[in-house]
UniProtKB/TrEMBL annotation:
SUPFAM superfamilies: Macro domain-like (SSF52949), Zn-dependent exopeptidases (SSF53187). One of its GO terms (biological process) is proteolysis. Pfam families: Peptidase_M17 (PF00883), Peptidase_M17_N_1 (PF21337). GO terms for cellular component: cytoplasm. It comes from Tritonibacter multivorans. Keywords: Aminopeptidase, Hydrolase, Manganese, Protease. One of its GO terms (molecular function) is metalloaminopeptidase activity. Signal peptide: none annotated. Belongs to the peptidase M17 family. This is Peptidase B. Residues 313-320 form the Cytosol aminopeptidase domain. It is an enzyme of class 3 (hydrolase). Its EC number is 3.4.11.23.
């Protein structure tokens, strides 16, 4: 698989002029008459994502104009350079040093690298031939590492469950750990019961043995600094269990391990950057399948923490596997605990597919994350741990209900459920979608990372690194 990288500097690189709509006329006045005329004929106005190539007298492209749009357009779209990259013919390109106000070099360069992503495991794809020379003033290694981590996340989510079951997800963790000198260990199948991870075992037991057996994968990295624990939902396929999903809802369930994929992408960023912290990653991996041993609506399960859970919907399995992993995570009292999961459809109803909803009781963490999300063009939205809804997750015959009736505030009640297993830890939870529904600049249709770049940028403030 190729990796995202910038082109080497070249005297033959084609100059790219980024032009805002507000200053397009001013820019064109300073250009040769042939350029002005060509721009007018082609309708180039500096609109967001516009792209115009200009040839020399021999017919070779000598420069390209990229539209940065108006301030209003930029509020509605991001990654203008990526939008142009998709339209440019093959060649090596280099940004000029004169850039419009508000043009963030690192974000736009990242967007260009993301426009190069192709998922080619099962069919050949035409690679992008438009390569960008690393712009002056960016941290090249950092941008390339962020892009590589995002490519990893996308590859994991895009791989169908036939090739990305619990065993394959474990292998992905082991490969990442080996790359960075991390330690990886796994508890599998019946050993989950002997080592007190009953909910993970219960959710995954119907999928069978071997590579399909449920498991808890742990990766440890770093020897000094504050402790950060990341927990990612790794349900590799979700049929809904005995509360079987309809076909239309089951079609995208290969992405139900998107929380694990996002956590691994974030871990890749952290380890590549060698942040001075101690990292622990926990991935409860399972398939929610249908067979004789499948768990049932009405069952009451006992968790690692000792809390009992009444199962009122087997399709609310993600919070069950996360509960055992969160209980383990809090036993070591980490300085910061973060979970990521494709957990509820309610979150999509609340904020749509593009925003990553997050929960935290820590005002400083919320402020740091919101700030970095804007800077990194990685949008998030804070949701409340609304305590008055606690009663909704307390059924009559057990400590907790995995699927409260009523249909309201589903993302909030799921987050409150998870918080019950964190022992008052400094905790942040993300209820992500992990999927881009259509091709967009820097975000091809398919699996996508959400909130990870924002988190990576916020961690130095959150952990005083």
């Amino acid at each position: 698989m190729p990796t995202p990288s910038f082109a080497l500097p070249s005297d033959q690189a084609i100059a790219v002029h980024v032009v805002s709509a507000d200053h397009c006329e001013e820019f064109l006045v300073g250009q040769p008459e042939a350029v002005r005329n060509w721009a007018q004929v082609q309708g180039f106005t500096g609109g967001w994502g516009q792209c115009l190539t200009i040839a020399n007298t021999e017919g070779h492209i000598e420069r390209a104009l990229v539209g940065f749009g108006t301030a209003a357009q930029r509020k509605r779209q991001r990654f203008a350079l990526a939008a142009a990259a998709e339209k440019l013919p093959a060649g090596t390109y280099a940004l000029t040093d004169t850039l419009p106000e508000g043009f963030d070099l690192e974000t736009e360069a990242f967007g260009w690298l993301m426009s190069q992503y192709r998922f080619d495991r099962y069919k050949s794809c035409t690679p992008s031939g438009a390569q960008l020379v690393a712009p002056n003033g960016i941290e090249v290694a950092t941008v390339e590492a962020l892009a590589a981590a995002e490519w990893l996340t996308r590859d994991l989510i895009n791989t169908p469950a036939e090739d990305m079951g619990p065993g394959a997800l474990q292998q992905a963790v082991e490969t990442l750990g080996e790359t960075h000198g991390a330690t990886v260990k796994t508890i599998t199948g019946e050993d989950l019961l002997t080592q007190n991870f009953p909910l993970i075992h219960t959710v995954g037991r119907a999928a069978g043995d071997g590579n399909r057996a449920p498991r808890l994968v742990e990766m440890l990295w770093g020897s000094s600094g504050p402790t950060l624990t990341l927990v990612g939902k790794g349900v590799c396929f979700d049929t809904g269990g005995l509360n079987l999903k309809p076909g239309g809802s089951m079609g995208l369930m290969k992405k139900d391990m998107g929380g694990a994929a996002n956590v691994l992408g974030l871990a890749s960023m952290i380890m590549t950057a060698k942040l001075p912290l101690r990292l622990r990653v926990l991935i409860p991996a399972a398939e929610n399948a249908v067979s004789g041993p499948a768990f049932r609506p009405g069952d009451v399960l006992t968790s690692r923490k000792g809390l009992t859970v009444e199962v009122n919907n087997t399709d609310a399995e993600g919070r069950l596997v996360l509960a055992d992993a969160l209980a383990l995570a809090t036993e070591d009292k980490p300085d910061l605990l973060i979970s990521m999961a494709t957990l509820t459809g309610a979150a999509r109803v609340a904020v749509g597919a593009d925003l990553a909803p997050f929960y935290t009781d820590d005002e400083g963490d919320a402020a740091a994350l919101s700030k970095s999300a804007t800077e990194m063009a990685d949008p998030v939205w804070r949701m409340p741990f609304h305590a008055p809804y606690e009663a909704q997750i307390e059924p009559s015959i057990a400590d907790l209900d995995n699927a409260p009736s009523g249909g309201f505030a589903g993302s909030i009640t799921a987050a409150l459920f998870l918080r019950r297993f964190t022992d008052e830890a400094r905790y942040m939870h993300f209820d992500i979608y992990g999927w881009c529904q259509s091709n967009q600049p820097a975000r091809r249709k398919g699996g996508v990372g959400q909130g990870t770049r924002a988190l990576f940028a916020a961690l130095p403030d959150m952990l005083n690194l």
